[in-house]
Amino acid sequence: MTALTVALIGALTLGMSACSAPAENDDASGSVAPVTINTSAGSVTIDSIPKRIVAIGDQWTDAVAAFGVTPAAYGTTAQMQGGSVSPWVKDKLGSAKQINLSGDRVSQIAAADPDLILLPGFGVESAEIGKLKAIAPTIPSITGAQIDPWQDQITLLGTILRQKDKATEIIDGVQGQVTELKKADPGLAGKTFTFAYLYSADQIQVFGDPKDGAATLFADLGLTIPQRLQTLAAQQKMPRFPISTENIPELNSDLLVVAASSPQLAATLKDLPGYGQLDSVKRNAVAQLDLTAITALNLPSALSIPYALDKLKPALAAAAA
């Protein structure tokens, strides 16, 4: 199973309930009040502004880089899948060490001498979290979902880094781009979208949970997941669930966003029975993306969303018409 597939289907139920704000006289000099974050795995206290952050997962790596901070080390599914980091962040990582997510992650993270460890909501074992907490303050998934809203990650980092104004600036900058696109395509309001990943010749992974962090961008544009897919996700208790390719009519919507695990598999999509009858296909409202672009959407961040928007614009315009 590919790393991106793991990102689609893996999950841990970890979350954050609250964090305390630093005192008003805190500054970036290092003399700051502690920040306490309460998670379902226990409270985490960060005594000072971290200098050696280890970011595991594409979202956290992007979030740290968005603040202009170079992590001590990082590990992403993009580098596992394609052998290199995503184009929107590769020039922002400097001399940061890459963590091999297929290897002994705990020892690699420890070797980076971190003072803060950031973890995603999938792909990390509970036993690992316990070991990592003994190394440095460790922040697991914020919401308990597989994919956290990127805004939550930026807000949390703004608190930890004592850069709340910078966090607001980052969020407003990205949201401004989304708002401009929404204004350009007002017909998107009330339309439906399907987000799918063809990961084998007979299996498609389908996005069904509107609360998933990857749904935020589409919701901001005025799009919703078809109710039947939301119902299936709830019934299966899986925010992203598999269907067989013979059930491709389930993908019917105003906009189809789709990718495949290989170029060869992507070429077969148009020949699947029922594909040509989808409303999105008839309207040319299909964004058939490569793995880099689908990662930008699947693991959204302040850095990846502008990249994704550029790839989506033609299909969004067709869906809005």
Automatic annotation (TrEMBL):
It comes from the Bacteria. One of its GO terms (biological process) is iron coordination entity transport. One of its GO terms (cellular component) is outer membrane-bounded periplasmic space. The keyword Signal applies. It is found in: Cell envelope. Residues 1-23 form the signal peptide. PROSITE patterns: FE_B12_PBP. Residues 52-320 form the Fe/B12 periplasmic-binding domain. Pfam families: Peripla_BP_2. Its main location: other. Keywords: Signal, Transport. InterPro entries: ABC_transptr_periplasmic_BD (IPR002491), Bact_iron-sidero_bind (IPR051313). Belongs to the bacterial solute-binding protein 8 family. This is ABC transporter substrate-binding protein. It comes from Williamsia herbipolensis. The lineage of its organism: Bacteria, Bacillati, Actinomycetota, Actinomycetes, Mycobacteriales.
